[in-house]
From TrEMBL:
Cofactor: Zn(2+)
Name of the protein: Succinylglutamate desuccinylase/aspartoacylase family protein
Annotated source species: Niveibacterium microcysteis
InterPro entries the UniProt entry points to: AstE_AspA_cat (IPR055438), N-alpha-Ac-DABA_deacetylase (IPR053138)
A matching Pfam family: AstE_AspA_cat
Amino acid sequence: MQQQRHPLTAATPGTARELVSLHFGAPASGQKVYIQASLHADELPGMLVAHHLRQHFSRLEREGLLRGEIVLVPVANPLGLSQTLLHVPQGRFEFASGENFNRYYPSLADQVEQAVAQHLGPRADHNVALVRAALRDAVAKQPADTELASLRRRLMGLACDADVVLDLHCDTEAVLHLYTGTPLWPQAEPLARYLGAEVSLLATESGDAPFDEACSQIWWQLAERWAGRHPLPMACMAATIELRGFADVSHPNAERDAAAIVAFLTHRGVIAQPPASLPPLLREPMPLAGSIPIHAQQGGVLVFVREVGDEVACGDVVAEVIDPYDGRVQTLRSSIDGLLYARDNRRFATAGMRVAKVAGREALRSGKLLSA
Ligand SMILES: [Zn+2]
């Protein structure tokens, strides 16, 4: 294993931070895999999974079983990890800008297309290599004038030319689920199976450019532009894995999730050992546009009457919001048939607050599909 340290732009003198990446295997010896944890710095299940993955990858490297390079970033957001307000960690939004750490990654399709247009040919592998080289150049030219910009550039620089990108997050309270690009589903399905994902949510454009989509979207954008002229496969399988809820930080879960990721990489041929047989797919994927939030209409004590992982029908009561002054009880119902896959971990709702999400089969929403 090699450890690399990447200094970030210091916001103020004397506060320099760095990103640390762990490199297993050898570059250009097979596929490149990039895995990062806790880009939302207060989402910690992934950080523990990374701890277990480090041990797996170190052993596999010692045994000479890696066919490619694996880059593991166990703390993807040292900036967010340092943010605390009134004793509560604040890892989702940067204090300075208010920006979500997992949004606003660059869309580089135009720049890359311009750089490679004259050199494309009939061979897909040739075109993939061209696009990756142009991507590395384009990312290197991204601004790093603020600490956040330098963090985004470093993360993209490590990931943009990978065959597999796994971004480890969690929800507030949730069953294990994942987000990935619709065109990537054939490649992502084995991952969903090994992880035992209760649902996979697919989109081609989630809105506001989250990290995984910034890595993968360029491939279907360019493939569409070049259709019938230059072959281009979906050369980056990127997914955001939601490792249940904030509090689901335990060795049994993390060991299981790390083993599932190792099994997926074995299935892909990155690890030279017999692949574990594929477990069943728990549920067919659903459109991200079919994930329907449930909102509180009034403030009050939030009491859930259904658990995450429950199948609910349209009209089913999922929660109550109780006004403690006058005793008014508002019932919150699902507006669709689907899977109650995530709910808030707070137990006091404010008017308008989104308290739960139900995944359904019909794409009912449009526009920006992710929460703040
Ligand atoms: Zn997250």
